[in-house]
Amino acid sequence: MHFASVAYVGESTTEPLRYYHNITSNTLVVLEAMAAHKVKTLIYSSTCATYGEPVKMPITEKTPQLPINPYGKAKKMAEDIIIDFSKTTDMAVMILRYFNVIGSDPEGGLGEAPQPELREHGRISGACFDAARGIIPGLKVKGTDYKTADGTCVRDYIDVTDLVDAHVKALARAKPRNSRHLQCWNWKR
Ligand SMILES: NC(=O)c1ccc[n+]([C@@H]2O[C@H](COP(=O)([O-])OP(=O)(O)OC[C@H]3O[C@@H](n4cnc5c(N)ncnc54)[C@H](O)[C@@H]3O)[C@@H](O)[C@H]2O)c1
């Protein structure tokens, strides 16, 4: 399971080379290392950012992937490399495109701990925790012109424990020459 990534859309626009290097190029290196050591199964963490701004909702696995920022583009390129490589080998591949992940380990062992230096690029989940803990003065809700009751953005989330469940299932079902890419959002729909 390849989770490692830099993963902030805003940061990717100011440091694109770091994102292409660490996401695209390093995934290529991971594939080479897997091949050298005969590791036969890969579950890859991709993202809804690979879809860009689709005209039609809801987004499905068939929605064209037209990413609009370096983070999404780097992940899309990594996906392409993985799929092309899997066609030439007996490596079993599952690509999971997560939407917005939220939540913590119910037993309290793991939780969200935003790195202070990344707060300004951070996710709304981290900002909620920071506001609740008094680390920032309040929660700033961005967006005023979405087609919603109050003009702010509406998003849905997948709980991290459901995402773990999805990975376990993906691992069990990964088969060579049957690359799959699946979305992870609103998992219980
Ligand atoms: N959190 C979300 O909502 C979300 C949504 C879509 C996709 N994803 C993807 O899920 C994966 C995990 O995201 P996360 O939210 O846990 O992010 P995170 O930033 O909390 O964790 C990523 C981890 O990868 C490590 N890392 C980065 N580069 C590395 C490298 N070269 N070698 C080894 N480790 C490295 C970082 O130190 C960090 O611990 C990422 O691939 C991300 O792109 C996350």
Automatic annotation (TrEMBL):
It comes from Salix purpurea (Purple osier willow). PANTHER family: UDP-ARABINOSE 4-EPIMERASE 3-RELATED, UDP-GLUCOSE 4-EPIMERASE. Residues 1-175 form the NAD-dependent epimerase/dehydratase domain. This is PINORESINOL REDUCTASE-RELATED.
